[in-house]
Design a protein that fits this description.
The complex is a heterodimer of chains A (414) and B (405). With 414 residues, chain A is an alpha+beta fold. Chain A contains 15 helices and 13 strands. The chains are: A alpha+beta (414), B alpha+beta (405). At the A-B interface, helix 2, strand 7, helix 4, helix 10 and strand 12 of A face helix 2, helix 4 and helix 12 of B.
Amino acid sequence: MQQAVFHHRFSNGLVLLGEPMPWLESVAFTLLTPVGTAHEPSDREGLAGLTLEMMQRGAGEFDSREIVEELDFLGVERSSGVTTFHTSISMAAMKSVLEPTLRLAVSMIRDPHFPPDELEEAKQSSLLELAALEDDPAQKCFKELKRARFGDIHGRSSLGTEEGLVATDLSDCQSFWRNRFGADGAILSVAGNFQWDALLKLTEDLLGDWTVVENIQRPHVTASGNVKHIHHESQQTHIALAYDSVPYQHPDYYHGRGLVGILSDGMSSRLFVEVREKRGLVYAVSASAHSLDSCGSVLCYAGTTTPRAQETLEVTLETIANIGKGIEPDELSRLKSRVRTSLVMEQESSSSRSSQMAYDWVYLGRVPSRQEVLQEVDKLSCESLLSHFQKYPPRNWTMVTIGQEALELPHGIS
Amino acid sequence: MEFRNTVLENGLEIIAEVNPSAFSLSLGYFVKTGSRDESPKIAGVSHFLEHMMFKGTARRTSVDVNRELDDLGSQSNAYTSEEQTVYYMSVLPEHQEHATDLLSDMMRPSLREEDFQMERQVILEEIAMYDDQPPYGAMERAMEEYFGDHPLSRRVLGTRDSVGQLDADEMRAYHAARYAPNNLTLVAAGAVDFESLVDSAKRMTSHWQPSQTQRALATPRATSSSIALTHPPATQCYTLQYSPGAGYGSENRYVLRVLSTILGDDTGSRLFWDLVDNGLAESAVAFTQEFEDCGLFCTYLACSPQQKESNWEILQNILASANDTPISEREIELAKNKICSGMILGSERPSNRLFSVGNAWLNREKYETVAEAAQHYKKVTRDQLQESFAALIHRVNVTVTVSPE
């Protein structure tokens, strides 16, 4: 697993990360700026997403339509999104078109037009997206879980609220962009087939003179336990759960992530076996590790028909608690095997590598090598995982259910 | 990159796209069976059986199967469609033999009664899950209406009734008939050791008996109709329209794929600019579906109930605008670039190549490199596109709408 990861910090604070993968034909990048929903004014929820949408509706030498046409012409696969603390634009293309592709992405960040006649259309699109969530209870469950767990500021959805979107005008978007988007804290992460020296020079040309804006201080995120039920006339009840764990930057993160793996990675994982295979309670059940600033959580999901929902909840909770009874050596060996395989396979995708590097930098301020990750995972033992579970037992539970009947968290779970 | 293929004595075909510089390999059994090969009484058996294939064999318990899949560090899964059932995994090269052994063994499942009863509950949960999701059964209803008594009318998941009444013996009989070696193809892509793959497969499958498997092919006889369904918990309105398209064997499939990209891709298409970008609809797309003996050209609209009528009119006007707004060379160039670059970018993972190589072989008995496959799209002409575009409006169509009330 040979690997070279380059990084360079420009004088304006921008960090450039690069991992050449010369065996690929593609190159992918993630342009991340430290602007997210947490920075929206409280009466403008949805502003960050709407601003990002407007930044893509005309920038640099292109108008809204020309941007889409140019990206299609270049054959670029792209995505963009807003999280609590970040805005990202990600693109992947053939190596020969890296320069025009990156130039276009940078123009969205640095030189958006904010055409006045497009605002209403962008708002309508955002409102429709928000409305569509009402028909997707599983997704809605997680949106509500985030709100219940992280509160009014850090629990915001990137989709915003109807009130916030309706209240937003063009000057809100323009000043949000002007006051928030700058080089300091921004990351350009590139993976795939490219030359580092040429990339460094190109980035200097495109972003070296990007201005610094007032550095955004991240507020401290806290998680609170809450239970909420939303009535919905669906056949299934959707259960979303969260409990405390360690965040990505924690020295024991791989222990926390390892325990999630024991619970949910693969078809021999405990939740799959106990909830689905042995009892046939669900089609979908899962757990994942989640970090929000310094706050680590495990998120769980199960969907089941109403009469079996309470039992599904209880079996899920019991399965999580049973980790405290010990971990089998073969479970650990499967976990390590999966990590090793996924690290090798990561070399087959420039897109997933570029976004992983950006994520690493945000949380760790560096990019661990695959070898280092492997070594950390190799250190895990059944005993160390168990003692981690005992040191950080599941607590501070948040639960949101959507369906015909409310569920009860069993006694003793809080 | 090298293509290899062979057929074993029992009729099992093995094909591989060998790429020695890949980091991993992907492996899959492609079974030529799906919902169209079922009788109405056993509707859903192909998909139910797909679940049961993970439940153990003569040599392995269900726990063993799941543990070994995870032991191999594999990313494994399966899916069932109208025409195919596919079991696949991606592993590191050193695990090729073990993976081949496991996957081959899984093709001869125990199908125990107790597992059957338990898994039925999981399938019923899966049916309930999809019933709760947009477009709330509109696709299945449109297939039933469009195809009538044609076998493609059957639901892949079956219904609560058919799955509820299915018994394990019916499934065993279906398995014996459809999972014969001459109806399976072992497909591999990536860092494959082909000789070793063939040796392993021979060893594992020598006792498999060929059978007379057939698929009934027929031309569907659709007539135009319109169905309005209500789903009170919904907040949005969903409309789906199916009209005739092109099957796998037809060269016109490439024309229709480019045409659907120009008219209805999820970004940069005519539907996108006139309905989605401006915030009139949450989604407005056109896409194709291809089968062995026929195909579909489909359009889909999701929007608020208040705007459904006006949006649908806009959508229909776009489909009917071949004469007023002919397709431009620029539109063709953009659509072809988008399709071809997507193919090339996707091909970097062996797990994606597995499906391209496997499907081309199963559906068209052809192996094509990515560059060769891209040529089909590049060759499509403006005249071909314009001709298909002009014909759209004259086709029979089945429309299904789901509204809150």
